[in-house]
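Model it.
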Amino acid sequence: MKLRTGRFVLIAALALVPLATAEVNIYGKIKTRGVVNLPGQPGTHQFTHIWAYAPPSSGSSDNTTFVADVIANATFQQYVDGVSLPVAWSSIEGSAPTSTPCGPSETPDNCQPDPMVPTYHRYIWTSFDSSISQWFTVSSGTKLVNLLIFGSAEGTTNPVTPSYVTGSNYISLFTAPYGSTFARQDVVNFPQYSCSPWTGRSLGGNVARNATSGVVTVSSWTGQPFTSGDTIFVGGFQTPNTNWDTPLGGSPITSVTSTGFQYQSACPPPSTCSTIPPSTATVTVISAAESWSVPYEYPYKSALKAFWAAAVAHYGPSFTISGTNYFAQLNYFRFGGSVGSEWYPYCTTNLAGLSTPYKFQESGTGGGFTGWTDYYAEMTSYIQSLSPPLAVGWSINSAEVPPMTSYADMEAANAVTRSNGFGVRNGFGSQGLSAADSSGSSASNWYNNFQTHLNIPILELQQLSLSWPNDTTCSHGCQAGSFHYSGDLKTWLLFAWQSGATDIEIYWRDLELAFGDTGYCPLISGGTDCGAGGISLDNQLTGTAQKAMFFQAVGCSGQSGATGDCSYKSKVEGAHGQH
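Modeled.
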């Protein structure tokens, strides 16, 4: 018998034989929560779960609509097992670590010693737990919750990594035990490496450069304030603009006022540099803290390990909110070593130009390049050492263009060698599912890796971006991010569960399109537009007319003039459950 959730309650006695035998011997009674897969038994195959990815937060009109139409709807709620929730690092660790050891009254989820340097991290979970508490009580407490642990984020800036990780105080701690070689934290952004998406903001304001010193004064700054000493990057590309850019590696802010700041430009003094301000439309500024930290370097990965340890400790058997224990409704973890809960290796070409030991790709003893996959193996091993009480799924990612699927293949092979605290093997998956996927070519080679590991408890897929109904060939471009699309849900959802996916995370807007009626689109203008009262656009839908177009194609409605064929609803219902 295989226990899919990886968590169980012993009533009599349970004996586990080695995982290599793929068996569990049971003596007495066993009580399980969730689904128990019995491979090889007549009439049973994989059970496919449907999860709502990143549902709207409580208190919003979108949340009220989504819960009523999908999660708590007596007719449809059975087809959505629960939610997958991002857990942002900076929302839990709001201050820099200190030299004060963890006290006797501090629990491991609230205080963790840094695994590499003599400092102590403290975490506050109250606000985050309060924000997610509704998912444990909605639909009479039947919904399960997956926890996606984010260490950094994409976007103009990165608000998820705590700012201390790139600060000199924390980085300098690594000098004593490891030497100055490892007391360094590189970052990636567009001004420094031409690597999107961390572009920063327009320099803006009134700008002047001293022709003698090369110091630039920004006297009217309307963006997020910086702090004196912060490293910032201004300009673009690796060859600095001789007037305004910072050098490769950035420059510290030398002074800060309530409305501006100063920094040292790359322009060599004295008077060879123009003092004409640059175009504020083309020059951007971003700080190190707002950039993507190179995650395999010592400061970032050490701080991240401490956060992961706190998360595993917090979401354990004693997990409670307002005095009520909700551990039974926790389902799986996914830990991200790159952006989000993924492992995409950014900017590999430019980072390969760093000197040893900071290269992205270090030659391995067996030939090839192992820098990133060594990091992956180190972090999956670390999680196993924590004996997590939940099932664990890892992301697999190829690298850059053309896609180097060998990265994903090595990651999948590594993930399944790890196990949780009950000895249940870790799973893996891809967050790039789209209509472009096929048995011959799939995002991060997930299809071939699934076929290799079909008996793994978690084989997870998340759609790449918002679906575009009836686009079976990605004619609108299957890309990640705002206003990009994954193609037709019917196409990729059918292919996903038929290929062995046990867990499919679907954007909540697509689930609302499948099951909602006026909550998705109150039809107006003869059915060509949506009126007030439907879900928001929120940088995923380009306008209410697009909502109406989608709804009239695949939605399910009793509204007058509705033409949707209910196909999204029927495909979600068909994908969920035993196959």
